Amino acid sequence: MTSNQNPFTQSIEATDNFPYGFAELEAAAKEKLPTPFFGYIQSGASGEETLRNNEAAFEKYALVPRFLNDVSNLDTSIELLGKTYDHPFLLAPVGMLKMADEEAELAVAKAAANYHVPFIQSTVSTYSIEEIEAAAKNSPKWFQLYWSRDEKVSYSMVNRAEKAGYDAIVLTVDTFILGFREEDKRNQFSPLKKGFGKANYETDEAFLQSLSEHTDEAVIQKIVDHLYHPHLSWNHIAELKKRTSLPILLKGILHPEDALLAIENGIDGIIVSNHGGRQLDGVIASLDALPAVAKAVSGKLPVLLDSGIRRGTDIVKALALGADAVLFGRPFVYGLALEGQRGVEKVLANLIQETNVSLTLAGATDIASAKRMKVTRI
Ligand SMILES: Cc1cc2nc3c(=O)[nH]c(=O)nc-3n(C[C@H](O)[C@H](O)[C@H](O)COP(=O)(O)O)c2cc1C
Ligand SMILES: CCCCCCC(=O)C(=O)O
Asked: Which amino acids does the record list as binding FMN (predicted)?
């Protein structure tokens, strides 16, 4: 994508009253959403040390720009797993989006399609794989898999995603049990128990066969049972690979040794992530984990990052520290809560504009040059 717009004009083009910065966005979503819904989305696990550190990590790194480098033509496109995308970011998988808006993933997938940004659908989404494909036909979509205790259900969902034309499988490895989430305990709230994440299960033959009763309660209880999978190991990865021709990425890698094992096990990409500080608290911030992981991988597979991306300058820092692309979650969920599909589009438009301005001011002409940019630890 080439950016020919003149930011001197853009900077005084007030769009409307839609919030710009993340803090404003979060505050507006807090006003709008019921307390337990907002609490579920915003909070982290335990004492929220990691939630805070994810954002703080970006402030410990400073960009060192280059000038006089003819940056009049910016190309922000990336190539990932054989496909080309317009921007160096994707929408992270976020489950149970009906908490934010009735249209939930349908609205997000349509917004993402309009900007040619890949949408990663969560296993526990409010609408099914097939409903989302029908709403945003032929747009870039990946499927995030929560391994199921009944592995027939995992394989069945992966096959459905493949049949529906999804481009990749993202297996989340850090949520085999749920983190200790104090805010949800305080609010006595579980969106799963409300039924917001059951669409992919209710429409799955293998899941339906595992049910002995078909009441709403029995369905939800069975989903809870299937989601519990602490036995997940590299052996399952080998089996999963046999069942699909789609590329497989692992989401939740933080240790360089696990990144090396991913290569050994034939994985196609990794996502350096601590789940937005929602799983194990006190873990390394994703950005702090990135340089060692990128060094270990040394270009053998794509390295993506999420957790704490809030603005364009964060994206540039992540690229400079070794990421090939990034994902973000809460910012688009707040956009969804505020104005549905339009709100997600506004978040995307602002992020694209800020990323493009930041890349250009830092002296980059494309993503490869952003990845060579100097960053210093302060
Ligand atoms: C409300 C909420 C629900 C989430 N649901 C999922 C999910 O279903 N699957 C998954 O792999 N990650 C899930 N995540 C984690 C995100 O994919 C991502 O790792 C995280 O949001 C990144 O941090 P950020 O919100 O700071 O950008 C969820 C995050 C939030 C905030
Ligand atoms: C309560 C249901 C568990 C699904 C996990 C969704 C998720 O990844 C997150 O909330 O984070």
From this structure: 93-95, 122, 144, 172, 251, 273, 306-310, 329-330
What is the domain extent for residue 351?
A: 7-377
User: What's the pLDDT at 1?
Assistant: 44
Give the three-state DSSP class for 165.
coil
Cβ–ligand 2 distance for 175 under 6 Å, the answer: yes
Gap between the Cα atoms of 348 and 294, Å rounded = 26
**Under DSSP, is residue 199 helix (H, G, I), strand (E, B) or coil?**
helix
Enter the ipTM. 0.99
pTM of the entire predicted model: 0.97
160 near 172, Cβ under 8 Å? no
CB 33 less than 6 A from any atom of ligand 1: no
Dump pLDDT digits (tens) for 56-105: 999 999 999 999 999 999 999 999 999 999 999 999 999 999 999 999 99
CATH of the domain at 349: 3.20.20.70
39 is in an annotated binding site: no
In the numeric block, the tokens 């982290």 are attached to 44
pLDDT of residue 10: 63
- Please check whether residue 1 lies inside any domain of the structure: no
Asked whether residue 2 is domain-assigned, the answer is no
Q: Which of 81, 229, 275 is nearest to 166 (CA)?
A: 81
The conformation of residue 177, written as its DSSP 8-state character, comes to S
Q: Separation of 119 CA from ligand 2 center, angstroms? A: 17
3-state secondary structure of 101: coil
> What is the tens place of the pLDDT at every residue in 13-68?
556 889 989 999 999 999 999 999 999 999 999 999 999 999 999 999 999 999 99
Nearest ligand (C-alpha, residue 249): 1
Indicate the number of domains in the chain.
1
Whole-number Å distance between alpha carbons of 310 and 327: 10
